[in-house]
Amino acid sequence: MTASPRKILSSLFVAACALSVALALVPLVLIMFFVISQGIQSLNLDFFIHDPRPVGEVGGGMRNAIVGTLMLTGLAAAIAVPIGVVSGIYLSEYRGTRFASTVRFAADTLNGVPSIVIGVFAYGVAVLPFRHFSMLAGGLALGIMMIPIIARTTEELLLLVPHALREGALALGATRAKAVITVLVPAALPGIITGVVLALARVAGETAPLLFTSFGNPFFSTSLTQPVSSITVQVFNYAISPYEDWHRQAWAGALVLVTIVLICSVLARLATARVARIGGQ
Amino acid sequence: MNPPVVAPRPTVTAAPRAPEQQGPLKIDVEKLSFYYSEKIALEDISIKIRPNVVTAFIGPSGCGKSTFIRTLNRMNDIIPGARVEGRVCIDSADIYGQGVDVVALRRKVGMVFQKSNPFPKTIFENVAYGLRINRMVSSRSELAGRVEESLKQAAIWDEVKDRLQESALAMSGGQQQRLCIARALAVRPDILLMDEPASALDPIATQRIEELIYSLKKSYTIVIVTHNMQQAARVSDHTAFFWLGRLVEYGRTEKIFTAPSEKLTEDYLTGRFG
Fold first, then answer.
1. Which residues of A fall within a CB distance of 8 Å from B164?
2. How far is CA A169 from CA A145, A281, B203, B210, in A?
3. Which residues of B touch A272 (CB under 8 A)?
4. How many beta-carbon contacts under 8 Å exist across A and B?
5. Cβ-based neighbours of A123, under 8 Å, separated by 6 or more
6. In CATH, which of 1.20.1290.10, 3.30.230.10, 1.10.3720.10, 1.10.357.160 is domain A47-279?
7. Which of A99, A191, B232, B252 has the most C-beta neighbours closer than 10 Å?
C-alpha cells in the first residue's frame, strides 16, 4: 500500500509536534537532573535545622531561609488571595462595564511588569518610610505580583460556571451576592485554588523583588518588621560567592525550593480533588 | 428566532377569556408587553390563572412562552436591556410595583428549568440550599426533616435516601430534574413554574415528572411550558397557545384540543405548522 501525500503530510506534522514537545522538555529535564543530582549531595538534616555559619566555617544550613521563604509566601498569599479573588469576582460580575475593562487591562499590565520594578515599588512604599528592610516589604512585593494572576484566574473560572446555576440560585430566592458566594464561587473553587497555587509557585521562586525589600538575614528571624532570609536570595548570594561549600549549599537550596513548590502543587491537587468529587469536575 | 412564514400575524378577535372557575385569582396578568432592548418579545398578554390549577403554555419555538413564564418570577430582570410593560399580579399584588422584594417573590414563585441545574454540591445540600439562604429553618433536625419531606414530595426520596451525601451530579438526568423540583418545593412556594421540565428526558423519566405534576396540583398552582402537545393534553387543566409573542387562545385543555376557537390554534395542533 502506498501512503498518500495527505497521510505523509499528516505524519510529518505529528512528528514535528512530538519533536517540539521533546525540545520544550529538554531544559526542564536538564534543570531537574542537575538540581537533584547536585543538590542531593549537600542535603542532610543539618541543612534544615541549622542557620548559616560564618564565612570560612564549613557546615551550617538554611533553616532561616526556608522558614523565611515559607513566611514570605504565606504573607504574600494573605495579602493577595482576598484582594485577588474579590477583584476576580468583580471582573466577572461586572465584565461589561468600563471600569471592569480598565481594571482588567491594569491587571494584565501589572502581570507584565518586571519583578524588579515591583521590588523597587515595594522599596519605595514599605522600606524607605521605615528606614529598614523587612519581611513585610518582601511579602508586599510578592503579594502585588500575585494579585493580577489570582484576579484573572478567578474571573476566567467564574465565567466558566454555567449560567443555569446562577439562575437556579436566584430562583430559590438568593440575592446576587448570595448566589455568587454560595454557588458560583464554590463551583469554581477547584480552579481558583489551582490558580492561587500557581501564583504562589511563581512568586516563591522570585529573587529580584526581595533583594531590596526583605533583603536577607544571616540569622533566624520570624519578625515581620525585620529583614528576613529567603531561599532564593540565599541561593543567589551563595552561588556568586567564591566558596565551594556555599556552592554546594546553593544547589541544596535550589532543590529544597523546587520540592516546596512541588509539595504545594500536590497538596492543592489533593484539596481540589476532594472539592471536585462533590462538584463533579 | 425564525418565525414560520406560513401565516400572517395573528389577529386575535376577542381577548382570550379566563377559564370559568370559582375562587380568587392566583395570577392575573394584564396587558403585559415585554422587550429585549428594542425587540418586542411579548405583546399585550392578558391571562388569569386560578389556584391549584395546572396551566400549560404551548406554541412553536420563539413564540414567547418561556419569556412569559420568566416574567412571573421576574427572572428576566437579570437580562440587560429587558423591559416590561403592563401588570402582573400575584395574589392581587403587582410584582412589578414599587418596593417589591424580588427575593421574597422568587421564594413564593418557584421555578424548574428546562435543563436540570443541580448545584455542584451533595444531594442533601441541593435541597437544603433554599432553606439555608432564606434562613427558613432553626435547627439541624428541622432542616433534615424539610429536606426529606421535599424529596418525598418530588417522588425521589426512595432512590436517594441512602446517598444524600453524594454529589448531585452523579445522578441520572431524570433524577436531577426531580431533585431540582424537590429543591424548588423545599422553600414551600405557592406557585411552581416549569420551563419545559421534561424536554431533555427519556419517556420513562418524563412520565414520572408528569405523575409528579399531577400529584403536586393539590398543593400548588403550576404553570408549565412545553413543546410537547401530548404532554400539555395529559397534565394540564388549562392551556394557553402562544404565537409570535401573542396569546392566541386560552381555555380548558379539552376544549383547546378538541374544539379550538381560533384557526391558528387548530392549525398548530394539527401540525399544519410549528
1. none
2. 34, 19, 28, 24
3. none
4. 79
5. A137, A212, A213
6. 1.10.3720.10
7. B232
Residue B35 in domain: yes
Residue B238 lies in a domain: yes
Q: What predicted TM-score, i.e. pTM, was given to this entire model?
A: 0.83
What domain count does chain B have? Answer: 1
The whole-number mean pLDDT for each consecutive block of 10 residues of chain A, a chain of 281 residues, reads 84 96 95 92 88 84 93 96 96 93 95 94 94 94 96 94 93 93 92 90 92 90 91 93 90 93 85 65 43
The domain ranges of chain A are 5-42, 47-279
The one-letter code for the residue type at A197 is V
Q: Concatenate the DSSP letters of all residues of A52-114 into one string.
A: BPPTT---B--HHHHHHHHHHHHHHHHHHHHHHHHHHHHHHHTTTSHHHHHHHHHHHHHHHS-
**pLDDT tens sequence across B70-82:** 999 999 988 888 9
- Nearest CA to CA, how far is A268 from chain B (Å)? 19
